[in-house]
Amino acid sequence: MADERRPVRRRDVEAVELDLLAEGIHEAYGFDFRQYSRPSFQRRVWRRVDAEGLHTITGLLERVLHDPDALQRLLTELSINVSAMFRDPGFFRVFREKVVPQLRTYPFLRVWNAGCATGEETLSVAILLKETGLYDRTRIYATDMNEATVNQARTRAYPIAKMREYTANYIAAGGTRSFSEYYVADGERVVFQPSLADNIVFAQHNLATDRSFNEFHVIMCRNVMIYFNRDLHERVHALLYDSLAHFGVLGLGARESIDFSGHSAAYETVDEDERLYRKIA
Amino acid sequence: MGSIIAVGASWGGIHAVGVVLRGLPADLPVPVVIAQHRREDGGPSRMAETLGRRSAFAVVEASDKDVLEPGRAYLAPPGYHLLVERGSVSLSTDDYVRFSRPSIDVLFESVASAYGEDAVGVILTGASDDGAEGLASIHHVGGVTIVQEPSSAERRTMPDAALATGKDHRVLQLDEIAPFLVKVCA
Q1: So where are chain B's domains?
Q2: Whether residues A269 and A227 fall in one domain
Q3: Containing structural domain, residue A263
Q4: CA within 13 Å, CB half, A11
Q5: CA-based nearest distance A12→chain B, Å
Q6: Residue B37: active-site member
């Protein structure tokens, strides 16, 4: 962070600037970052300040207020949830073992992948449901706050260089086929089968500001709320709770605890290590 | 006076971090946060347990939004950056920084920002230059900065890189670090 061009960073001034930036974006565009977790927000904002060739957060505020393209670049910086297909393979393995049997008892399934980013997790779930014979009766709603990110997810395209890692994850996750059956190479990238997306609805939805839009049997919201502060974290947990059917299953990220959610008493644990919970009240 | 101790280590760090933790008394009134480079794909890990062996500090793998309590050490989980707000943990899955996640720079910069002159940063052994900028950030806000004496480190690259920033960090032998931490935090 040491940059000679940049004015001396004062922590108190920086805090004011971050507040102003979040307020300004909210007032002008309606995106609400006021309750984002401060350390990550600050880090991502500074990354954008540097990438825009600016020196201060206030300079970034001026630019995003007058240049919608700059806003879009900031939104992407702030909303990109870096993921991998079958990230935490154990999560998908346990999902297959402990959740799929319950899902088999339903004639129709609704799954919500909240904060889908560029779709790695969504496709992972789609593959898992295909292999367990559930996909044809499932609709997966994959949402993210950033329209540009959702559009990228719709392309089902990923760098070919990632396939080694994803294949290893897929195998560790208990995949039953050859992973390469699911995609075709196209130069430096691969494109996943169109049929995987047959029952996926990609849509823009903002967890910080939007309401529940359906009732789901499964909600996966992994490593999304780590970017929210406690108040927003609690609000989103209430939203997820309201959106889950009775006995619906909630999947969180590997280092997220339901204890801080305000709703922990309403869930029973399906698997503590893999952060899978079932709504029982 | 120190209100939090941030420790960064890479190659050889399991031993070095363990030595530092064993030298801290249970009643030291500050939390410790640790970014130790580690594999992501190893499955369940016993690193926290290993580091806490024979230490009065309870070592835990950090969960998001954990409250930072004195007498406890919070280890960055594999595949996450560990950051702090004043009093609590904040995790991130943002991209690798200098090929590392957890990144020492990311942790130290958040500690500098949240704690200012109450921050204490320690760079131990490692074959990387991660942590050099982060330690400089802590120095910049008036915190206490410590570097393991390079020739005594299992890998000296990281201590050397931290010292190459030109800040007047305190250079200590591994076994001198814990007693010094006790002095600045007690």
Answers
A1: 4-185
A2: yes
A3: 89-279
A4: 19
A5: 10
A6: yes
Q: Do B110 and A39 touch (CB under 8 A)?
A: yes
A35 and A152 inside one domain: no
Tell which of B64, B84, B106 to mutate to test the A interface (max A CBs under 10 Å).
B64
A122-154 pLDDT, tens digit each:
999 999 999 999 999 999 999 999 999 999 999
Q: Do A45 and A151 belong together in one domain?
A: no
**Residue A211 confidence (pLDDT):** 93
Q: Are residues A136 and A64 in the same domain?
A: no
- pLDDT, tens digit, 9 for 90 and up, residues B65-114: 999 999 999 999 999 999 999 999 999 999 999 889 999 999 999 999 99
CATH code at B4-185 = 3.40.50.180
Residue A1 lies in a domain: no
DSSP-based three-state secondary structure for B145: strand
pLDDT digits (tens, 9 = 90+) for B102-127: 999 999 999 999 999 999 999 999 99
Burial of B68: CB neighbours in 10 Å, binned 0-12, 13-18, 19+: buried
| A95: exposed, middle or buried (Cβ count in 10 Å: 0-12, 13-18, 19+) | buried
CA triple A67-A70-A72, angle to 5 deg:
115
| A177 at B interface, C-beta within 8 A | no
The yes-or-no answer on residue B168 being catalytic is no
| Number of domains into which chain A is organized | 2
B113·A90 Cβ contact <8 A:
no
B92 as an active site residue: the answer is no
